[in-house]
Amino acid sequence: MRPGPTPPGPQPMREDLLRVLGLWRVRRGWLLAGGAMAALAALAGVALLALAGRGVSEGLRTGVLAGAAVGSLLLLRPLILLRPLARYLERLVTHAATFRALADTRIWFFRRLAERLPGGLGLRGAGDLLGRLVSDVEALDGLYLRALVPGAAAIAVVLAIAILLGAMAPALALVVALPLALALLLPPLLAPGAARAATRAAAAQGELRSATVDPLLGLEDVLAANAEPRAAARLEAAGAELARRQARLTRRSAWGAAAGSLLGQAALLGALGYGLAGGPGAVGAAVLGLFLALAAAEPLGALPRAGAALAAAGAGARRLFEAADVEPPLRDPATPAPPPKGFALRVEDVRFAWAEDRAPVFEDLSFELPEGGRLALLGPSGAGKSTLAQLLLKLAAPQAGRLMLGGVDLATLSADAVRARITCLTQDARLFDDSIAANLRLAAPEADEAALWSALERAGAADVVRALPDGLATRCGEGGLRFSGGQARRIALARVLLSPASILILDEAAAGLDPAAERAFLETLESATGGRTVILIAHRLLGVERPTRILRLAGGRAVPAMG
Fold first, then answer.
1. Is residue 462 packed enough to be buried (19+ CB in 10 Å), middle (13-18) or exposed (0-12)?
2. pTM for the complete prediction?
3. What is the pLDDT, as a whole number, of residue 265?
4. Where does the chain hold its CATH 1.20.1560.10 domain(s)?
5. Confidence of residue 120 (pLDDT cuts 50, 70, 90)
6. CA angle at 41 for the pair 54 and 305, rounded to the nearest 5°
C-alpha cells in the first residue's frame, strides 16, 4: 500500500469546497430552490408540533382539553397536507439540482484532463482517474444533499423556535434554543477531524480501483505470467485498507451523532426543568417548548452526518483538483493567430527532448512538404517518428526551431485550429463501445448518414458494415472487439477521412495486420487520401504507398532515403 496523501487542513478544505460551489454557480437557481423547499418542509413540521403543543397547553390551562384540541385540529389540516407536499418538492428539487451540478462537474473535469493529458494517461493509472471521475465526484453530492440542505433546514428551525419561545418566555427560549444552536456548530467542528479520515479513505478507494482495473486492462498478460495470485493479493490488501479507513470515518460520524443526540436531549430537559421550576403558570409554556424541541429532532439529527459529508466532499474535491490543476504541457497563446489559408508544412531547425535530463529526439530537424504532397517518414523504433506526429498535432512543443503551417508558426495558433487542419490515424486507433455511426461522428459530429457511408466506401469498409444486421447502429464493442484487426482499422480510417483536415498523419496505421491485410490496407490508403497532404510514418515501405518524397530519421535529423 502506497502512503496516503497528507490530509488538508481546514483552510484548504474550505477553499476546495468554495471552489466546488463556484463550479456550480450556473445551477444556483436549482440549488437555492432546493434549500428553500427543505426549510419550508422543516418549518411545516415545526408548525404542526407548535399547534399541537399549543392545543395541549391551552387544554392544561383551561382544563378543557377536548375543546382546545378541536381548535388546533382545524389549524392543523392545511399543514398536514403542506408538509408531505413540501417534503416531496424538496426531494424532487434537491436531487434534480444535485444531478445537474454533478454532471457539470464531470464535464469540467473531463475537459481539464483532456487539456492536461492530450498524449494519454502517461503515468496516471486508469483506475485512479476513473475513481476520481466517479467516486470523488459522487462524494460532492454530500456537500449539498447532506450538508447544505440539512443545514438550511436546521437553521430555519432553530430560528423559528427561538422566535416563538422568545416571544412567550425568553428564559424558556434560552434553555431550549441554546442546545439546539450548539448542535448547528457540530458540522464545522467535526469536519476538520473527519477530513483526515476522509482523505485517507478516498486515497484507499483510489488504490482499490487501481488494483481492480489495472489487472483487468492487462488480463491477458496477467494470466500468461500466472500473476493472478499477486493481483488478487493486491486487491485483497486494498480492500482491507479501505475498510479500515472507512471504519475510522464511521466512528467519527458516530461520535458526532451521539453529541447531537445529547444536545437534543438537553433541549428537552431544559423545557422540563423550566416547567418544574416555574410553577403552574409555566407548565403550558414548557409543554410548547417540549413539542418544539421534538420538532427540531429530525432536522438537527442530520447535522452530525453533515460533518462527515463535508469531510468526504472536501477529500473528493481535493483529489479532483489535484488531477485537474496539473500544468498542461502546452497552453494556447493569449491571442491566437488566425488560421492560415494554406496548409504547406515546413519544419525548421527543430530541437526537441521529452525532458531536460533525456537525450534529444531531434537535434536539427528540417524538411518541407508542399500542399498535396505525400511524405514517407521511415526509421526504427525510437527514432522520433511518433514524436514528430505529436509535435505537428501540438501535443508537445519544440525547445528550439519552428513548425510552420501555411507559413504560420504552430506556436501562434490555438490547438483547436491546428487539429482542424491536421489529423492522425495512429497504430492503436481505438473504436469505442458505441455504434459505428457514433464512432465515425467523433470526427464530424454533424455528418449525415450519406457522409458516413461515403467515408466507409473510401475506406473499403462499407460492405462489412452493410452485411451487419444493424448496419451503422451496430456496436463496436470495447476496443472494437466486434471486428477483426483489418476491419477495425478500416472503420478508424473512415473516421479520419470524415475529418475536414487537409493533412493526414498515418502513424504505423497498418501495424499489427498480417501481410495480406497490410498490403490491402495501404492500397486503400493510396486511393482514399487523394487530394490531401499525407505523412506516412512506417518502419519500411511495401511498394504500394507511392510517396512523392521519402525521408529517414537518423541521429535527430531527416535525411533523404530511397526506401
1. middle
2. 0.72
3. 86
4. 12-324
5. low
6. 110
